[in-house]
Please model this.
Amino acid sequence: MLSRTADHLYWMARYTERAENLARLLDVSYQMSLVPQSLAAQNENWRAILALNSLEAAFAREYPAVNVENVLRFMVSDASNPSSIYSCLRAARENAHAVRGTMTAEMWESVNATWIELRQQNFDHILARGVSEFFDWVKLRSAVTRGVTFGTMLKDDALHFIRLGGLLERGDNTARILDMQYHILRQNDDEEVSDFYRWGALLRSLSAFQVYRKVYRDAITPGRVAELLILNMNLPRSLHSCADGIVRMLQLIANGASAETERQAGVLHARLHFARIDDVLAGGLHEYLTDFMDRIFEIGDGISRDFLIPG
Model:
């Protein structure tokens, strides 16, 4: 496969997954903002979202204050923000358009329809209808595109690069969501009345609430939430599951230059496969997740070097 074609497919998948995960992060943050708390604490949570995406300076240039509406507007529909849902879905569509002939007609129609529908949605109307409804729409459109992709694409390198991009983005974003929300929630552990709601919202943001109930059949605890989202191989959005998929996709597209990237992915997978949650928490969850994100970044760099940059 041509490097340029692989690059467009890979980034199309990453941008689509990024939009979905941003919707998940914003939704859980919005749901938690409805829990009684001080205005300062609420705004600090929204400030954490900007910091998580290294957007503090960009936000400050456009908006006078950090609050719910301003952050949502900036992260949902601001075209000047390259990390907004609007910008991500636009980039996904542009990458898809560049390799339209490589995709099935159904897949292109799904990506293009998502972009057309998004352009028809004004932020003020989104806010008036309820932002959670919009976030559900983003997640649904991502799921539709993913389903059409897996259901119609030939199982060749094109599909492997699409899956690889999606898995890398998903793993990175799951780590980011867990890192931010776990820190905030641990700070509020004394607020027992809202604990269940807060931890439940975090699990729902990663489609893991019902899975948690099925696996543990007990009260929601921080350690078990971390164990499920990091180490449970059977949860599609867990770090372990994403790392396993990355290793398998790299094996399928391997070339003469990719041995080091495969090794790095294998090391990451092994660290997750043989880890114990007690050891992870003892060493510091933030440190563990930061290390995971650093390793994902290095693997992404390796993929770009080995497969995507034209010689």
Remarks:
- Residues 3-33 form the longest helix (31 residues).
- The chain has 16 helices and no strands.
- The chain has a mean pLDDT of 90.
